[in-house]
Task: inverse folding
């Protein structure tokens, strides 16, 4: 394997560091998943797509990845949404879980090895709270909820670089989300109230009937799954969006390490935000743009992937109609180039093989350097330009086979997965196009260029692009 070369920014140390899994080639990888109170925003999918690329690059490099993704199906937001919808919690969240899997498949995201729904891990969560109570880092408040005592956990705040002077001993917060300016003892287990009972979000526990806090869920599920899979209590990589650093991941560390005494995760990786600006598609929901909005508009997932990979995961991306159009054009060019390579002749040839070797090396160097996808994509388009020039020469160079294999290895399902989705062509359309193309060829032969141009425009209006080649006129759908 070619592993052991990947370096990634580690939020714990604020440095790019070599990835050092506990027991290579195994990599245990926990990724915070969606809260299934609603459809996931395209910004959530930016995070899932950067994680998808990291997963694929690890596997491409020979690592044996075990990926866990949780589904938050009980927390403040899901309970509130279920109440507003007048439905039991499970009934409200089920369709959004299903929608998440559909969106994942649409965006070609490699499925995690296990999806953990929080409501299915109550015994593990209850055991974790009991352990923290036993160890004296948690206590029951007079409100009946159980809190984590951050003052009893000396390294609290390390991940988010919290100013410890801000910690007010005894201050408590019950809600799942709160600001970094208010570090407080946070709820591990919230005493059930009428709202929780009303939607079926309450469970019996030795320390009182209630429900888990959101942060507790991830600790309990991660520890359970890596314990079962690998017999360890330490993750190799924990990833999520930067908005999760505080309080979510800070609290996950406190809960997990407070219970096990072991490092919770060796590497913490966080992806930046996505801003949705000026897109027509998001008008329906303010700027709340979902993956299904894109799918309903017929946007090829390849374009969404390419758009995201053109920006480094630690830089914010603006999702605009212009950026999406540019990405669609990029995908179209990749598809067209793919077709040219497939028609290439010969097995061996120095020029193209050398270009392919360089592309392979450039992509590996870029991705090993903190998953620098934009540099990898730039190398890819350099390759497309250079090889197109070679293929344009009258005789054309031999050796397209190696170039094709490397190109497909990088742009295909094995890595970036940015080749256009094959579209089934309606047979009625195909025969109409064939008839129109023949009519145009006839018009050109009789030097009636006005008629030929009119037919080209007619085809264009139906989304059909044509190209005149030595082998005749070729067409495809835009
Ligand atoms: Zn989480």
Result:
């Amino acid at each position: 394997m070619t592993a052991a070369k990947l370096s990634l920014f580690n939020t714990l140390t604020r440095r790019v560091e070599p990835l050092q899994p506990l027991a290579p080639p195994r990599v245990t990888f926990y990724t915070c998943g969606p809260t299934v109170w609603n459809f996931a925003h395209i910004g959530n999918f930016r995070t899932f797509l950067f994680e998808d690329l990291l997963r694929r690059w690890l596997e491409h490099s020979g690592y044996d990845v075990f990926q866990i993704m949780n589904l938050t199906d009980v927390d403040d937001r899901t309970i509130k949404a279920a109440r507003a919808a007048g439905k039991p919690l499970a009934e409200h969240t089920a369709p959004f879980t299903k929608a998440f899997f559909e969106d994942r498949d649409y965006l070609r995201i490699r499925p995690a090895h296990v999806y953990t729904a929080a409501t299915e891990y109550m015994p593990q969560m209850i055991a974790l709270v009991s352990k923290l109570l036993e160890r004296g880092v948690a206590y029951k408040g007079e409100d009946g909820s159980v809190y984590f005592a951050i003052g009893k956990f000396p390294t609290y705040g390390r991940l988010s670089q919290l100013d410890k002077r801000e910690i007010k001993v005894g201050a408590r917060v019950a809600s799942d989300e709160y600001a970094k300016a208010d570090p407080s003892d946070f709820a591990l287990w919230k005493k059930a109230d009428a709202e929780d009972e009303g939607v079926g979000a309450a469970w019996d526990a030795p320390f009182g009937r209630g429900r888990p806090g959101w942060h507790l869920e991830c600790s309990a599920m991660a520890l359970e799954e890596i314990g079962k899979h690998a017999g360890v209590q330490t993750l190799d990589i924990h990833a999520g969006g930067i908005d999760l650093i505080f309080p979510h991941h800070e609290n996950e560390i406190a809960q997990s390490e407070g219970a096990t005494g072991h490092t919770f995760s060796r590497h913490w990786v966080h992806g930046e935000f996505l801003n949705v600006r000026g897109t027509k598609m998001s008008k329906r929901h303010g700027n709340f743009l979902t993956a299904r909005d894109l799918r309903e508009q017929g946007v090829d997932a390849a374009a969404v992937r390419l758009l995201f990979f053109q920006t480094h995961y630690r830089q914010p991306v603006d999702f605009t109609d212009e950026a999406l159009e540019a990405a669609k054009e990029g995908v179209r060019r990749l598809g067209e180039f793919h077709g040219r390579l497939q028609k290439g002749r010969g097995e061996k040839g120095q020029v193209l093989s050398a270009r392919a070797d360089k592309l392979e090396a450039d992509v590996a160097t870029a991705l090993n350097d903190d998953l620098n996808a934009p540099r990898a994509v730039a190398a890819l388009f350099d390759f497309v330009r250079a090889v197109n020039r070679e293929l344009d020469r009258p005789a054309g160079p031999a050796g397209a086979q190696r170039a094709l294999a490397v190109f497909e290895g990088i742009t295909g399902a094995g890595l970036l997965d940015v080749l256009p989705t094959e579209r089934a062509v309606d047979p009625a359309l195909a025969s109409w196009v064939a008839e129109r193309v023949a009519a145009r060829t006839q018009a050109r032969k009789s030097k009636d260029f006005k008629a030929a141009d009119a037919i080209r425009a007619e085809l264009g209006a139906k989304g059909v692009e044509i190209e005149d080649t030595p082998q005749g006129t070729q067409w495809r759908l835009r």
Summary: The pocket of zinc ion is lined by residues 32, 70, 218, 248 (CB under 6 Å).
